[in-house]
Write a structure and sequence with these properties.
The chain is an alpha/beta fold and 447 residues long. The protein has 21 helices and ten strands. 51% of the residues are buried.
Length: 447
């Protein structure tokens, strides 16, 4: 179990969240926490039909019983998502009530309350009902707007009160999704190392250590998570909370999201469904995470100490050529200029590429060992996902391996954040990397 001392140190680094309480019976604490954070204010419980039954009705009764004027709003749609119309819906209810939002639910409800509260110039209180995402405590809300999955800057809640019994009782699929979302921080961390080496997004030490120092330990008990063991699921939720705090510290999603998440963003933007249903964020991220672990497996087989830097620089395309490649790739996408805009920001000239590749070549033995220590092998990550009940094969979320392969070039270009695929493009081993993963002997072998 992560110690209270560790949590106190993490909260001291957080920029938005001042209170984090997690225990059996923690719902009893909601009124006092609300009064301390929002003295004299009214409250509005935001929930859906499921989360109202899980905790919302109890919170409502306890708030009114404590003398806090409290109303409620249940999102009427049975299948709703983190989309702009629902932000407007929640914002209208909170504004009309003149109250402070109390988000009772999982990641979607939290993001809707987070962004709508920010629009109204106030914070809110979060009562999570599942260990399903790391967004409860994160800076920013991931919302689909005009067909694009976007992260909108907005502060995390001032307080999070999590009842361990409620969290452990959540549907096992939601808990498995949270485990996969947390596991994504493993390859994501390695890609942050690459960005740090390139000087594009330097590692923020406090943001790195608050999460990465406990990550292996939290992920080490998939059997307990699969069994809905209260201690194991509590640790998972705390790990997810620390991921959000890392994002608060960095004021960015960099500590928690890279190429692994871009597979999910692509699927969100294209309305991917399996058996008629949209797939959860964590389940989509699971496949992105496994794919990146597979790429790192193949990457670490290379000997980049013998990289021909001159040859790579000589073949490096111009900015205009890369912009044209992006326009061609994304021409039928929901946002045809997405890749163009991203490559326009992260494009590096030949001189910069030379310097970056020279650093990789000169430091390769040390870098290789650092990446090896950071990243789980594909086999290890797949085993963990199978135990916990997360997707372990693209077909588990309705993707063929051929289709997954088609997504790879999009993920390299979807965001201006430097990733492993950018390094592969610079070093002229991108095609070989993709073939190694999707070829006859690869992790995602296409038969």
């Amino acid at each position: 179990m992560i110690s209270q001392e560790y949590l106190n140190k993490a909260l001291a680094l957080a920029t938005d969240t001042r209170v984090f309480e997690m225990a059996d019976g923690a719902l009893d604490r909601v009124p006092d926490v609300f009064k301390n954070c929002f003295p004299g204010r009214k409250a509005i419980i935001i929930a859906d039909c499921n989360t109202w039954k899980a905790a919302g009705n109890v919170v409502f009764d306890k708030m009114n019983g404590a003398g806090i004027e409290t109303c409620s709003f249940l999102i009427p749609d049975r299948h709703f998502h983190a989309e702009w119309p629902y932000v407007e819906m929640v914002e209208a209810q909170v504004k009309h009530s003149g109250a402070v939002a109390v988000a009772v639910g999982s990641g979607v409800i939290n993001d809707l309350c987070k962004l709508s509260s920010h629009h109204l110039g106030q914070s809110y209180l979060c009562v999570p009902t599942a260990a399903s995402v790391d967004g409860y405590s994160s800076f920013g809300a991931s919302i689909s707007y005009q067909g694009l999955k976007q992260t909108f800057d907005c502060p995390a809640p001032v307080a999070i009160v999590a009842d361990a019994s409620v969290i452990a009782a959540a549907p096992s699929k939601m808990t498995a999704a949270g485990y996969a979302d947390l596991a994504a921080k493993i390859p994501c961390g390695a890609e942050w190392m690459i960005a740090d080496l390139f000087g594009t997004e330097p590692i923020v030490p406090d943001a790195w250590h608050v999460l990465q120092d406990v990550l292996d330990g939290v992920l080490s008990n998939p059997e307990g998570v699969a069994a809905s063991d209260k201690d194991a699921v509590s640790d998972l939720f705390i790990g997810l909370t620390l991921s959000g705090i890392a994002m608060q510290i960095a004021r960015s999603s960099r500590p928690a999201s890279c190429t692994d998440h871009l597979f999910s963003h692509y699927l969100d933007m294209t309305g991917h469904r399996y058996k008629g249903e949209l797939q959860s964020h964590g389940f989509q991220v699971a496949i992105g995470t496994l794919t990146m672990c597979a790429f790192f497996d193949e990457f670490l087989k290379l000997d980049l100490s013998s990289l021909d830097v001159d040859k790579c620089v000589s073949a490096w395309p111009s900015k205009e050529q890369e912009q044209q490649r992006a326009l061609e790739l994304f021409k039928d996408f929901v946002s045809p200029r997405l890749g163009y805009d991203s490559i326009s920001v992260k494009y590096a000239d030949a001189g910069t590429v030379r310097s970056q590749l020279a650093s990789v070549k000169e430091q390769w033995p040390v870098l290789k060992e650092r990446y090896r220590r950071q990243v789980y092998t594909f086999d290890k990550m797949q085993r963990l996902f199978r135990i916990v009940g997360a997707p372990a094969d693209p077909e588990d979320i309705g993707l063929t391996r051929e289709r997954l392969k088609e997504l790879v070039p999009y993920t390299q270009l979807m965001r201006h954040r430097i990733n492993l695929l950018d390094l592969a493009k610079r070093g002229m081993f991108y095609d070989g990397l993709v073939e190694a993963v999707f070829g006859p002997d690869g992790a995602w072998s296409i038969k």
